[in-house]
Fold this sequence. Notes:
Blueprint: H1 12-26, H2 36-41, E1 46-51, H3 54-58, E2 62-67, E3 72-78, H4 80-83, H5 88-110, H6 115-122, H7 127-142, H8 145-163, H9 168-183, H10 187-195, H11 201-210
Parallel strand pairs: 1-3
Antiparallel strand pairs: 2-3
Amino acid sequence: MNPADYLKTYQLPELEKIAHKEIKKLGDSLTIPVDIEEIVENFNDIEIDIHRGLKDNHHTWGMVSRDLETDKFVIMVDDTLLDIDHLKKIYRMTIAEEFAHILLHKKAIEKVSTLDDFKALQNHGNWHKHERNAKRLAAMILMPSANVLNDSRKLYTQFVQHIGFEKPQVLKKFLTSKMADRYEVSNQSMTFRLDEWPIKVLSKIDEAMKNQLDFLD
């Protein structure tokens, strides 16, 4: 059976539930930025392996393979992501995305035993949807909804109390940058997260400032 036949497409509420389940496992040890390595290490069947030349040879920062001897999934990450400080955010997102692929597409990955199997996955007609699912789940894990909402509300109130309600675009740019640094993700990733259901912070800012509210609902 083709490994691609085991792929499933997920809706946003399903992805949020999966992310919440993994975050909840951390309990009191949850920190911001989220310790993605701790989350992965809680799975006995998943390992992280730093791989030299992954980007140069395979044109990707990370990928998932399966060690047939140990029966474990291996998240391979290009070694330069650890060597260069300004690539740390990419390192975190790479691990989160490959981990997300395992959570979402485990059955398909388990069926990959040859290069042809792997190519069949990559060439699947809806692979772009499965990639997007993994990217979204990775973002949800690194930027948990409840935490992002609470932190955004605090920053919003602090801003309008000092600057007022006249500069929504300035506020959104300021808040996005601050949040991206706090959660150790890219500004682009944070922008998408803030604008997507169920957070919708950027649209809430427009509405709150329009009505001169010093809080976000």
